[in-house]
Amino acid sequence: MQLEVLSIKGVVVSCEVNSVILPGLQGSFGVWPGHTPLVSVLKDGKLLYFNPDENELAIEGGYVKIQDDYISVCLNG
């Protein structure tokens, strides 16, 4: 899967990943290959991504769009 994390300053992360854990409004949720298409609001928290090592990014909310094994995150800050 491809992960793109964008902020107003530009690209924060752009890489291939095995899975991602995102801080949703109703709680954290995971994304794996073949995930159902989804658009969701994100809250402040930790975005974890695995490629294959675990990487962590503190975020201040935003939005995520998941489609065709492409994960696009737009950050608020």
CATH topology: ATP Synthase, domain 1
* Relative strand content: over 45%
Report mean pLDDT, rounded to a whole number.
97
CATH superfamily: F0F1 ATP synthase delta/epsilon subunit, N-terminal
Give the helix tally: 0
For the biggest β-sheet, the strand order reads: 2-1-7-6-5-3-4
The gist of it:
By secondary structure, the protein is mainly beta. The chain has no helices and seven strands.
What can you see in these coordinates?
This protein has strands at about 1-5, 10-15, 20-25, 25-30, 40-50, 55-65, 70-75. Helix content is about 0%, strand content about 75%. It has a single domain, classed as ATP Synthase, domain 1. The chain is mainly β and about 80 residues long. The radius of gyration is 11 Å and the shape is globular. Strands 2-1-7-6-5-3-4 form a 7-stranded mixed β-sheet, with no helix packed on it.
